[in-house]
Specification:
178 residues, alpha/beta, binds shikimate-3-phosphate
Amino acid sequence: MKDNVILIGFMGAGKTSVSRALAKAENLPLVDIDEMIEKEAGMVASEIFRLYGEERFRQMETEMLEKLIRETDHSVISVGGGLPVREINRRLMRELGTVVFLNVKAETVLKRLEGDTTRPMLYADDKEKRVNDLLAFRSPLYREAAHIVIDTDDKTIRQVAREVARTALGVTGCGESQ
Ligand code: S3P
């Protein structure tokens, strides 16, 4: 197993923000799989979904994990909310390092993503039902993939980043004063 920290969780769990805070505080390289995919495809995720469909996007996620296993170590890695749904991706992530599940409640997701139009998986007439259904389906898979689970509701990005550092990196304070 390699020595990366991989942040997983539902859309709106704070993976992107927490990974940035953690990488900065710990002076570690930061990798964002969604960004890698968008850069390679030359378009944003919602465009990839629209033009090529979800399955193609999922395939690109698997390819990126394989690439990271070949090329990346000692980094903070943030992945898209649906990546752990594929069984092979859960296995690849655990090869890549310590997997941290940022847990979030449906009501928090809805609050944080109010007005957001960038998430193709949430394009639905009844967004609340969509979030609840997807979360119910995905939560056991996130737990299955994770070494560590952190509840993020009512916590700041900085607090969650510190908790990740303490539990996954085995350090306290995240390089900041307490
Ligand atoms: C997705 C989540 C998105 C992005 C894509 C699909 C999902 O990432 O990968 O829109 O299936 O949950 P975030 O979790 O960073 O929003």
